[in-house]
Amino acid sequence: MHGFANPARFLRMARWLLPLLLVPGLVLSLGALAWGIAFAPPDHLMGVTVKILFIHVPCVWLGMAGWSTIAVSSIAELVWRHPLAGIAARAAAVPGAVFTALGLATGSIWGRPTWGTWWVWDGRLTSFLVLLFLYFGYIALADAAQRDAASGGSAGRVTAIFGLVGAINIPIINRSVVWWNSLHQPPSITLGRSAIDGTYLWPLLLGALGFSLVFGAVVIARMRMLLAEIQTEARLRRKALG
Amino acid sequence: MNSETVRSPMIKPKHQRLVLVMLALAALVGAGLLAAWALSRQASYFYIPSEIAAHAPEQGRAIRLGGMVQKGSIKTMPDGITIHFTVTDGKAQVPVRFSGITPDLFVEGSGVVAEGRMEGATFVADNLLAKHDEKYVPREMKDMVSARSKQGMAQTK
After folding, report:
1. What is the model's pLDDT at position A215?
2. Based on the structure, what is the number of domains in chain B?
3. Are residues B99 and B119 in the same domain?
4. Which pLDDT band holds residue B156 (cuts at 50, 70, 90)?
5. Which region among A43-57, A60-74, B4-18, B47-61 has the lowest average model confidence (pLDDT)?
6. What is the mean pLDDT of chain B?
7. Rg (CA), chain B
8. ipTM score here?
9. Which of A193, A214, A217, B6 meets the CB 3.0–4.6 Å disulfide criterion with A21?
10. The domain containing residue B21 runs over which residues?
11. Which residue in A50, A75, A185 is closest to B133 by CB distance?
12. Does residue B44 lie within any of the structural domains?
């Protein structure tokens, strides 16, 4: 595991890994969206409104996967003091927040014609909104911690603890439609069973895979950016002192 | 980090941190589960008919009722905008009255959430929300679905 901890080795790896994720990711995402939006048949109740499924589901999936990345990286940072873990967590926060916001927006647009309302305060919608606010808090905290670290502080650990504590919301989001009566429907895809017809399921799964690859590429690109930022800052500091 | 020099050499600091993080995680999950359990009734967005049958809510208090629209129960009144229908969860039924425009997905046999209050034994709704089930099926396969949605009715909450 510490083989990947070396930033120089990571940067060498990122050089070929980034296009390897980005190109197939974009091809899969756009292909699956075109397939889903242009060719999937209308739903028996919702009609063509069902096609927002192909954007909504990958977005909410990545909103939750983003925080899971933060949580796992936070554990690695707290326990093994893995030097890249904190950077990976911070890199995942912004795209995670963007996908969470997109998930909320597309869900709202879908809810208006389908349920008859833009928003309700049921368990699923509320816990997902909380996820967006957790992202905002995390991003603000991580920015403050970076300035603190530049002046020799250790607020980075507080960010990691926040990332870990915030993860409790992920199983709550997942179970909200099972624990509490909600307007949002129960899960369509559970282990080994899908209530989504194959004509929708395949473009949906391919799209989710494509979005995830793009997400991975964005995280790697942002990690490179954050590493470069830290390096520049350290160099400037040395110049100013020396 | 001075404490690390005093600690017994048998335990590596990273193992100690691992144990601490695991304990913290266990406490966190425990707290989360307790909170979720405590919220189990209050956090529900609506009541189902059997809950209303078991503990009748006060008359006039604003509540939400959710369930399936019973097949063949929708009746339009002579004024053209008032409808009567029955909401069921397979065990109990609640008659509902509503005046206004219904959402597109409001059909017999589908899920509905009604906002309103109990007046006598009737639920008077101010607003209707359609509840979609978890199934996504193309129009051509609609007939195959109605059999399945019937069995879904029983488990829909």
Report:
1. 97
2. 2
3. yes
4. very low
5. B4-18
6. 79
7. 25
8. 0.72
9. A217
10. 3-38
11. A185
12. no
A123 or A139: which carries more pLDDT confidence? A139
The answer to whether residue A19 neighbours chain B at the CB level (below 8 Å) is no
The answer to whether residue A188 is domain-embedded is no
Residue B43 domain-assigned? no
Measured between alpha carbons, how far is A9 from A236 in angstroms, rounded to an integer? 23
Tokens of A117: 């309302």
Amino acid B8: pLDDT: 55
B57 CB contacts (<8 Å, ≥6 apart)? Answer: B47, B63, B118
CA-based nearest residue in chain B for residue A195: B135
Q: Does A197 touch chain B (CB under 8 A)?
A: yes
Tokens of A172: 């709550």
Residue A7 covered by a domain:
no
Range(s) of the domain holding residue A162: 25-182+198-241
Supply the CATH number for residue B87's domain. Answer: 2.40.50.140
A52/A57 Cα distance (integer angstroms): 8
Contacts of A12 (CB under 8 A, 6+ apart): none
pLDDT at B153: 46
Describe the crossing of helices A123-150 and A198-241 by its angle, rounded to 10 degrees. Answer: 20
Whether residues B20 and B86 share a domain: the answer is no
SS3 A135: helix
pLDDT at position B3 is 47
For an interface test with A, give the residue of B19, B136, B153 to mutate (most A CBs within 10 A): B136
